[in-house]
Amino acid sequence: MLSEILSIGFLTSLLAGTIRLATPILMPALGQIYTQRAGILNLGVEGTMLMASIIGFATVASGGGLWMGFLVGILAGAIFSLLMAWLSVTLRVNQVIAGIGMNVLATGLAAYVYRLLFGIRALPAKITSFQAVDLPGLSDIPCIGTVFFQHNVLVYLAFALVPFTWFVLEKTMFGLKIKMVGEHPRAADSKGISVTWIRYAAIVIGGAYAGAGGVFMTIAYLNMFTESVIGGFGYIAVSVVIFGRFDPYKAMSGALLFGFASALQVRLQALGSGIPSQLLLMLPYLMTIAALIFASKKAEFPSAYAIPYSRMER
Amino acid sequence: MASLAVKMRGITKVFNGVNANDHVDFDLRKGSIHGLLGENGAGKTTLMNVLYGLYQPEEGTIAINGRTAEISSPTKAIALGIGMVHQHFMLARPLTVVENVMLSRKSRRGIFLDTKETARELRELSDRYRMGIDPYSKIWQLSVGEQQRVEILSAIYLGAEILILDEPTAVLTPQETEIFFDTLREMRDDGKSIILITHKLEEILSIVDEVTVLRLGKLIGAKAVDETITKDDLTRMMVGREVLFHFPPLTRDPGDIRFRLDGISAMNDKGLVALKDFSLELREGEIVGLAGVDGNGQKELCEVMTGLRPSVAGKMTLDGEDVTNHEPAFYIQKRISHIPEDRHATGLALNWSLKNNLILKSFARPPINRNHLVQTKKVEENWLQAEKDYQILAIDGDEQVRCLSGGNQQKVILARELNCEPSVLIANQPTRGLDVGAAEYVRTRIINARNRGCACFVVSADLEEILQLSDRIAVIYGGRLMGILPRGSDPLEIGALMMGKGLEEKLEERELEQQNIH
Question: Which stretch of DSSP H or E encloses residue B257?
Fold first, then answer.
């Protein structure tokens, strides 16, 4: 058993799986950095990802092509998160409740859409998903090639978004405005920045990223849709943002950590380690709790975190 | 009158049915410093927020430099050359100075930040007015005075010719205030027009060219400030009557010892010693003032006395009964009232109605509570009585306490704490942040409580207040009692004790004692 775990083959497969499974956490987490930095806690990421996963999948299944499916998934995420923006910014409802409401809605709606489009069937509908791209030269390097250079294109895209997100937040006016709105909305308002629009934008961008992560699950990781396809990745993404203290690079390490836990869990099950599979399945979620307990104490939340803004209130 | 920088006419602004501004006129001459004077809640800040585009007035017109202007947003105001420095700074603490400034205008590099150029220009401007601000410091690293300079620098950098300053000296030490006034004079000489919102009379007399006085949202008058204007004139305009600056001395002799602290020690929130071997007696019908610089254990002392913090050593007795380390409810039952230092954090439930705040301590007992139900009628009666007795300005008592001015909030606390005929009153900074009229009112109430036989303990960092109120003056430094002085003691002597004079000798004495014991 131990020798199997320590074998090179197992390790490379584990690390490659880590990167692949980190992707659907990394994408929504990067998006939530915009959202949370602007002072909005969007727990509806989970539902947003689920909606994107079914709509993107349906697009591909109806012959729209993989890239079209990916874009439609992003769009679906952005549109679904508009609901969160409307609830939390315009109506100023409690963000935790709004987010949970969104997830309940998405659970029902996604199942409904799936049955509407595909009917009730014995075997789930399947598509041909994004395939791994072999980078000439690099993919052939032993071990390293397997770990880093035999993924599908969306995985590379997700990791490319890390420096991009950092750049937007640190080097552009838009990023600065997001931080200001999350830190001191009244000050932003008094400087002529529209708190409403910046927060809407930050939520919708977060939704688009979440959409990308959601559709990744159905058209690039699996090749089918199930109602539990997201399986808590949205919630984990929200906690990865806090774990990473709202920084894209730290969030990336957080996503890799959870990707590792998920990949390990899958492989230990396959090995037949004797540990009950239910316990192994809990591994990533237990890690979420542990990581949050340690990290959230250190995290400096934006001052206006989860607080609706109104100009009239003192 | 050709050179008016700002001309506001008939400005009316309504909040929740109350006129915060009621047909107010306001003129600002170019190149002058103009004082806007009034008590808290007089509508000064509201009027300036209208000028800065944060509020839209229900009625009235504004002209900037002789041209009528519709100021629908702060962006418009900035474009018109109006800058405002708020009482609570509009700065994001984790960001740098230059980042805070860059937010206010378009970047020269399009969607990317122009950090380097902006920082260089800020440094030049800072040097010109000798402000000493490093554009790359994070806001949280700066002192309050520096943060204020950042705000002013930022406004000027954005091209402000008309500068609105909301209570700028409230956060400054006397030395900082002097430097700050010099900067203001320099800016005026550069042709800028400055509005100074304040309720401090000394400031009006020392720096302002003209003054406009508001009271309860209405314009009382505007005049030029010269030698003929006195503090009393301004007070009368501001408060509408004479204000007592001196209180009558003690009229009755204090009675028996009511509350006794014997060698109390306690820790602060960080687990460090905050109170060390503190002993004090409060007698029936006397006011003991506790003088001391903020943060020398006053807060911990008041908390120990009301059960909010455990003492680690020593003993407290009330009328001879041991009352050390009980739950807060116990002290409430023993009619020990507490006016806490921070009325927002511990004094009030800000999102609750006035009525509910008034029954916070009595809701569990008759007459408010009968058969485990809160008697709405009694709550209503209680509110009406308090409104009348304490002159609380409110609509109907159902609005949130948050909506009231600081003075009215303090009246709500007073009403709650004094209504139960307290046997001991512990007042920590009871007049902090209040204007002259409201502060006078609070002090009068405390004296009345004393005259009814209550043992009063007043903590204040304001030595003036201590001298006015106290029958005896205790001084605290570093969590230790430095001494107790009689009424009418020399302020210099108290000041010296507040700075810890004599502590070393005391410690040496104690060491000698202990050596003798061993």
Answer: strand B257-267
pLDDT tens string B484-510: 998 888 777 887 787 776 666 666 666
Average the pLDDT over B324-336 and give the result: 90
Token pair listed for A297:
């104490």
Calpha distance B256→B284 (Å, rounded): 6
pLDDT one-digit tens code per residue, A54-101: 999 999 999 989 999 999 999 999 999 999 999 999 999 999 999 999
Burial B33-47 (b: 16+ CB within 10 A, else e): bbbbbbbbbbbbbbb
Judging contacts by C-beta atoms under 8 Å, the chain A residues touching residue B75 are 192
Give dist(CA B157, CA B151) in Å, integer: 10
Taking CB atoms and an 8 Å limit, are B95 and A186 in contact across chains? no
**Probe site for chain A from B13, B104, B105, B351 (most A CB atoms < 10 A):** B104
Provide the chain B residues 60-119 that lie in CB contact (below 8 A) with chain A. Answer: 73-75, 78, 84, 86, 89-95, 99-100, 102-104, 106-107, 111-113
Question: Are residues B481 and B298 in contact, defined by beta-carbon separation less than 8 angstroms?
Answer: no
Of B15, B74, B102, the CB nearest to A190: B74
Q: How far apart are CA A48 and CA A109, in angstroms?
A: 11
Q: A183 and B95 in contact by Cβ < 8 A?
A: yes
Question: How much is the ipTM here?
Answer: 0.84
In B31-128, at which residue ranges do the beta strands (DSSP E only) sit? 33-37, 59-64, 67-68, 82-85
Q: Domain spans of chain A?
A: 20-125+149-230
Q: Which residues contact B66 (CB under 8 A, 6 or more apart)?
A: B2, B4, B7
SS3 B374: strand
